Amino acid sequence: LYDWMDRQNADLYSTPLEQCYKEIDATVKTMFEKNYNLSDSNKDLTVTYDEIKWIIEKCPEKNQKLITYAMLVHSKRHANAQGVFYMTFKHIGIATGLDDNSKDGINKTVKRQVDKLAELGVIEIIARNRAAKKGLKKLPNLYRINLPDFPEEKEEVESKFKTGRTDNFNVCLKFFFSTKELKKKLPRRQYQSLVG
Q: In 120-192, where do the E strands start and end?
């Protein structure tokens, strides 16, 4: 970044160069401390048939399906090269409709289901209870989705569901499966709750 700064036309900015270097240092330090990920926004935000089928098969409970789908889409946008990403319990709650507005700020339903997903091997909790540098707040957990290696998909028109949203699991289900198929794949109450 210093080299990039040195190549900039000094007539186009008024901040002293030494101050620019300090700002670069502070930005880089913050990026590493907070595990920010600068990535392009043109990531593949598609869900495949194999991925959605895997979620249905691996997650016995409705809330587990919702959380895994939300985490999958979120990871496609924000995961680093090793597949690691963070997602707060609050964000998971909002994305899944499981937001419980608890006074302590910890969504107990989401936390319980995330722990169950880790026990099932659906997700891996890479790091939890990470202390922030200042204050009492903790940093969000780091996760990885444990998707198996699926065979290469044939390029069919409707083989991938394009999405940028973490809260449209029901739409994704309807994209890949007929009503009849969903009634076979999901328990009755899950079908009624997820598909209607």
A: 123-127, 130-131, 138-139, 142-145, 160-162
